[in-house]
Amino acid sequence: MYGEKGFALIKELSRCKETLPPYNTDLVNAVSNEIKQLLEQIKDAQSTSDNESALVTAGSKISTITIAHAGIKRNLRCLLSYHYNRIKCLRTMRWEFGSILPADIKVNLSAEEIEWFSKYSQMLASYMRSIGDEGVNLAIDMKPPKALYIEVRCLVDYGRFELTDGSVLLLKKDSRHYLPRSECEELIRQGVFQHIV
Amino acid sequence: MALHPSYAPNFYSIEDILATQERIPCKFLGNVPDMGHLNPSTLEKDLAAGTVLELPVWLVQELSLGRHSIVATELPKIYKESYREILKADACAVDLHKFNLYFYELGKHIKHFDRKGDVHDILLHTFKTRFRQIMDLADHSVSDPTVQERLETLEARLFSDAYDARTKLNAWLVESGAILEAANMVVNHKKRKRMNLDIIM
Amino acid sequence: MNPDEAEFLGEKQFISIIPTFNSGVVHLISGDVGPFRASLPTRVPLWMAINLKQQQKCKIQHPEWMNVDQLERIKEDEKKDKFFTKMPSEQYMIEAKLLLGCASDDVPKADDIRTIIKDIWDIRMAKLRSSVNNVLKSADSYAEFKNLTVMEINSIRPILPHALDQIYRMKINKHQGAQSTTLSTPFRTSTSFSNLS
């Protein structure tokens, strides 16, 4: 049956919750080839029905074309949905992981997706800089703030961390810090700090 | 994939693509030249009139459009009378997950081929009857844990949305102050890494 | 909407405090607050009251409705009445939670009040759940809920609209002929209520 490969692409995406499966170049090419092949089939059907004088056979060629056409539409839908939904996931990742993706996620992306991600990050950064006089970081205050300073515990050996006032902290695993909320919110989201209440 | 696959009509909807892959029994009304390969049980070049095949919904929709219908469709068995009777008797006791993963979505496509409107009625009846169960499940007030496994895709999503909201509200009632947390994807990414490590070691 | 966000909105509510310090008017985007004179009552937003209280810079004057007699009466009404009774404050749950949390020494019989409010909340939530179920069962084209407060409405946010949406989708185009529903109707993206609400 036509459209099986396109369906396999979508099935692959749907199985992965919260992550991206490796970009499936082979399957994407296979779907594109099926589309080309179906196009040829439509052209053939058209040319033969032009030659044949009997209207009866010409009529039934319409069924052939309808089926092939439906196959093309289905394959296109699968291809577009595959790419669209991957990009949508990638966009969420920019907000969850920040502008640098973990290496094991990056290997699953196609070259075009990597390029898209870095362009999206750049655009987002320049948009944030353009708001107001000094720019606004839209990635903080994801929850309504309760206090200016919060206490955090460091979950990993992170190393040097420079605050906006220029002072430098050495972040070691299990060290505790009392910091401005705005400085550590992103590190909390990235799983470096744990917020202690 | 961290996303909410939205339902049809949405061209990009993963869920709808999955649902429209389900198959319906169809009978071809005329010969179709050069399409013999669609029927695995014949080597003929053309597809003969009268051939009965199970075709995916996306194809059937195109073939039964308007006046030039190429195929005659039949209801899949889960929407036929015997199954409808089971649902009418006690929809809550049914393992809808086993009926079909996309019982409602598929049903919404199927009902166009059902002139009498029985499918339409049974969809509504089933959904309304089972709703209370989903809501109670989300409020942790159902003691039978297997109920969750009997939910269909749409119901499962309704449940998880409601469950998330309920959990957040309960947390708010006891917790003081909004705690900042690591992003969802980050947490899951770490979990997966740990799992992979466990497998290696 | 997250409960945290609902709480944030509720914190705009004004409340009387008796400051223990002197200070001039504070100009805020939402309006001016103050001036503050020690032991002279003044009205400030709830979030500021909580903040000052935590720094022990004021006593909070609890809202008038926050007394055992009135709440007992409301509780009785709520039990008797099939419908929702009108609550003395749109944000009763938020105010109760915040005030009883950090300023219980300013509220007489705080423990009793906490219990009664919890009872009222539980009665109303049970009522809400059975109402939602009834609305869905009868599934008329509209239903009316009166006297619900912000946090209560928020508690049924994803499930009720989502379920009604599904019913609508099942009912619609009952009489339409066989049509390709995926392509002939305009796009409606995302039903993710958890993001919208």
From TrEMBL, chain A:
<dbReference type="InterPro" id="IPR036224">
    <property type="entry name" value="GINS_bundle-like_dom_sf"/>
</dbReference>
<dbReference type="InterPro" id="IPR005339">
    <property type="entry name" value="GINS_Psf1"/>
</dbReference>
<dbReference type="GO" id="GO:0000811">
    <property type="term" value="C:GINS complex"/>
</dbReference>
<dbReference type="GO" id="GO:1902983">
    <property type="term" value="P:DNA strand elongation involved in mitotic DNA replication"/>
</dbReference>
<feature type="domain" description="DNA replication complex GINS protein PSF1 C-terminal">
    <location>
        <begin position="146"/>
        <end position="196"/>
    </location>
</feature>
<comment type="function">
    <text>Required for correct functioning of the GINS complex, a complex that plays an essential role in the initiation of DNA replication, and progression of DNA replication forks. GINS complex seems to bind preferentially to single-stranded DNA.</text>
</comment>
<dbReference type="Pfam" id="PF24997">
    <property type="entry name" value="PSF1_C"/>
</dbReference>
<comment type="subunit">
    <text>Component of the GINS complex.</text>
</comment>
<keyword id="KW-0539">Nucleus</keyword>
<keyword id="KW-0175">Coiled coil</keyword>
<dbReference type="Pfam" id="PF05916">
    <property type="entry name" value="Sld5"/>
</dbReference>
<dbReference type="InterPro" id="IPR056783">
    <property type="entry name" value="PSF1_C"/>
</dbReference>
<feature type="domain" description="GINS subunit">
    <location>
        <begin position="39"/>
        <end position="131"/>
    </location>
</feature>
<protein>
    <recommendedName>
        <fullName>DNA replication complex GINS protein PSF1</fullName>
    </recommendedName>
</protein>
<feature type="coiled-coil region">
    <location>
        <begin position="28"/>
        <end position="55"/>
    </location>
</feature>
TrEMBL record, chain B:
<dbReference type="InterPro" id="IPR036224">
    <property type="entry name" value="GINS_bundle-like_dom_sf"/>
</dbReference>
<keyword id="KW-0539">Nucleus</keyword>
<dbReference type="InterPro" id="IPR021151">
    <property type="entry name" value="GINS_A"/>
</dbReference>
<feature type="domain" description="GINS subunit">
    <location>
        <begin position="79"/>
        <end position="173"/>
    </location>
</feature>
<dbReference type="Pfam" id="PF22466">
    <property type="entry name" value="PSF3_N"/>
</dbReference>
<comment type="similarity">
    <text>Belongs to the GINS3/PSF3 family.</text>
</comment>
<comment type="function">
    <text>Required for correct functioning of the GINS complex, a complex that plays an essential role in the initiation of DNA replication, and progression of DNA replication forks. GINS complex is a core component of CDC45-MCM-GINS (CMG) helicase, the molecular machine that unwinds template DNA during replication, and around which the replisome is built.</text>
</comment>
<comment type="function">
    <text>The GINS complex plays an essential role in the initiation of DNA replication.</text>
</comment>
<feature type="domain" description="DNA replication complex GINS protein PSF3 N-terminal">
    <location>
        <begin position="12"/>
        <end position="63"/>
    </location>
</feature>
<dbReference type="InterPro" id="IPR038437">
    <property type="entry name" value="GINS_Psf3_sf"/>
</dbReference>
<keyword id="KW-0235">DNA replication</keyword>
<dbReference type="Pfam" id="PF05916">
    <property type="entry name" value="Sld5"/>
</dbReference>
<dbReference type="GO" id="GO:1902975">
    <property type="term" value="P:mitotic DNA replication initiation"/>
</dbReference>
<comment type="subunit">
    <text>Component of the GINS complex.</text>
</comment>
<dbReference type="InterPro" id="IPR010492">
    <property type="entry name" value="GINS_Psf3"/>
</dbReference>
TrEMBL record, chain C:
<dbReference type="InterPro" id="IPR007257">
    <property type="entry name" value="GINS_Psf2"/>
</dbReference>
<dbReference type="Pfam" id="PF25005">
    <property type="entry name" value="PSF2_N"/>
</dbReference>
<dbReference type="GO" id="GO:0006260">
    <property type="term" value="P:DNA replication"/>
</dbReference>
<comment type="subunit">
    <text>Component of the GINS complex.</text>
</comment>
<keyword id="KW-0235">DNA replication</keyword>
<dbReference type="InterPro" id="IPR036224">
    <property type="entry name" value="GINS_bundle-like_dom_sf"/>
</dbReference>
<dbReference type="InterPro" id="IPR056784">
    <property type="entry name" value="PSF2_N"/>
</dbReference>
<keyword id="KW-0539">Nucleus</keyword>
<feature type="domain" description="GINS subunit">
    <location>
        <begin position="65"/>
        <end position="163"/>
    </location>
</feature>
<comment type="similarity">
    <text>Belongs to the GINS2/PSF2 family.</text>
</comment>
<dbReference type="GO" id="GO:0000727">
    <property type="term" value="P:double-strand break repair via break-induced replication"/>
</dbReference>
<feature type="domain" description="DNA replication complex GINS protein PSF2 N-terminal">
    <location>
        <begin position="2"/>
        <end position="61"/>
    </location>
</feature>
<dbReference type="GO" id="GO:0000811">
    <property type="term" value="C:GINS complex"/>
</dbReference>
<protein>
    <recommendedName>
        <fullName>DNA replication complex GINS protein PSF2</fullName>
    </recommendedName>
</protein>
<dbReference type="Pfam" id="PF05916">
    <property type="entry name" value="Sld5"/>
</dbReference>
